Amino acid sequence: MLSKNKIKLIQSLNRKKDRDETGLFLVEGNKMVEEAIASGFRIALIACTPDFFAQYPELKHRTEEWIETDSETIRKASLLQNPQDALAIVYQEQHAEPEADLQHELCLALDFIQDPGNLGTILRIADWFGIRSVICSANTVDVYNPKVVQASMGAIFRVKTSYTDMHEFLKSSIENQVPVYGTFLEGKNIYTEPLSRNGILVMGNEGNGISPEIAQLVSHKISIPSFSSGKGSESLNVAVAAAICCSEFRRR
Amino acid sequence: MLSKNKIKLIQSLNRKKDRDETGLFLVEGNKMVEEAIASGFRIALIACTPDFFAQYPELKHRTEEWIETDSETIRKASLLQNPQDALAIVYQEQHAEPEADLQHELCLALDFIQDPGNLGTILRIADWFGIRSVICSANTVDVYNPKVVQASMGAIFRVKTSYTDMHEFLKSSIENQVPVYGTFLEGKNIYTEPLSRNGILVMGNEGNGISPEIAQLVSHKISIPSFSSGKGSESLNVAVAAAICCSEFRRR
């Protein structure tokens, strides 16, 4: 059974403060726990039903502790509306320095993304398009927020993330002749503009776009043209815009 | 002031049954109420602060009833976590028959989209890419669900939506030589496949994709290739996939 203390620990991982202090994060749902097991991440605890355990007997070699329990107990501990048969407490991987060979690969840089669902979806998009690194500004939502983890659909285990001073990071990249792309309403048409195979693609905040101090470091301003006649939507959701941009960078 | 009965009516619009019975839906937030005022939709009630009213004095000609009240009362009535200065009760527009000239334009067809955020985001994408009609299967989430309305960021006032028997609709479209596109893992590469300017693009359910009975009516199976090396994400979020497809249809 899951002790009261374990349940308390699980639920505490909804708070950034507690995640920072423990260096842990929460992974919920059968598919996601399966992804955690298949990943290289160190796992502190897996709690699951006997049925789930029977499906993944190797899980006991992948975790420091495992507990078989019933669905009702998992439901009690869970932060999800529809809990499943397994959850895991996983050690965070710290990537202090952005890990990307920017002379040869494309990475995403996120300037103050606030919504956890958007960040998770962006990780999933990066994973799909073979982008290995996502660099976040210090004020971007915590990648280990449970809602980010769930929305990433497992991409969190594959895409490297790091938090950094975005201004410094872009400045030193520019000095190394790395092209920095960013979307702006007045940018050049992404469908006709030449796009390089390497560099940084900056995505901005949900409400305000790329911040002025970051905008001045963008060497290639691009835009996704609207095809709406007359008064149409003024913007796209940031994850949607990221997807269209990644698709354009990769398709050629 | 907003009477208790009005607050009850506002909150009842969170339930499909009550929306169906009254033919009304709820619009919240300054930007969204502004969009409602600018739209052709008939408005039953606007409740707002004196400040909001001062900004849009013409609103009283656009609504059957308007009430100035304080932020606290709006907060009480609101379904949002962060209510603003205005909300509106708006009459639904019923589009019984799909309205699209499929010989000349592209429309989206949604097969059992369940998540309101996804539906709202898809409407916003359609609006951006100048797609006038979104046709929903009968089991797709209600377009007047408040979460759909909010996620659409106003696109709900511009994109025509209708609910229909998807199987019948596609069958008759095929008989009229309308191309029907749909995304499948085994489909042809969307980046190299010729895409027509007119027709129907089917997007499938979040968990299961396009249902088998609809899949057999798809004349052009396409796919968005993954660029992930090794084991990557198995799928993209449906709104993200819709965005990439719409971008591809429009860019040429």
What does this structure look like?
2 copies of one chain form a homodimer. The first copy, chain A, is of the alpha/beta class and 252 residues long. In chain A, the strands form 2 sheets. Chain A has a 6-stranded parallel beta sheet with strand order 7-6-5-9-8-10, sandwiched between helices. In chain A, strands 1-4-2-3 form a 4-stranded mixed beta sheet. In chain A, helix 6 packs parallel to helix 10. In chain A, 46% of the residues are buried. The model of chain A has no long low-confidence stretch (mean pLDDT 95). At the A-B interface, helix 6 and helix 10 of A face helix 6 and helix 10 of B.
In short:
The structure is a homodimer of 252-residue chains. In chain A, 34% of the residues lie in helices and 23% in strands. With 252 residues, chain A is α/β, with parallel strands linked by helices.
Q: Describe the strand arrangement of the main beta sheet of chain A, using strand numbers.
A: 7-6-5-9-8-10
- How is the main sheet of chain A built? 6 strands, parallel
How far is it from the N-terminal to the C-terminal residue of chain A, by CA?
54 Å
Which strand-content bin applies to the residues of chain A?
A: 15-25%
Q: Which stretches of chain A are poorly predicted, pLDDT < 50 over at least 5 residues?
A: none
Question: Could you list some keywords that capture this structure?
Answer:
homodimer, 252 residues, alpha/beta, six-stranded parallel β-sheet, 10 helices, elongated
Outline the fold blueprint.
Two copies of one chain form a homodimer.
Chain A: H1 4-12, H2 16-22, E1 24-28, H3 30-38, E2 43-48, H4 50-55, E3 63-68, H5 71-77, E4 86-91, E5 106-110, H6 116-128, E6 133-137, H7 146-151, E7 160-164, H8 166-175, E8 180-189, E9 199-203, H9 212-215, E10 220-223, H10 238-251
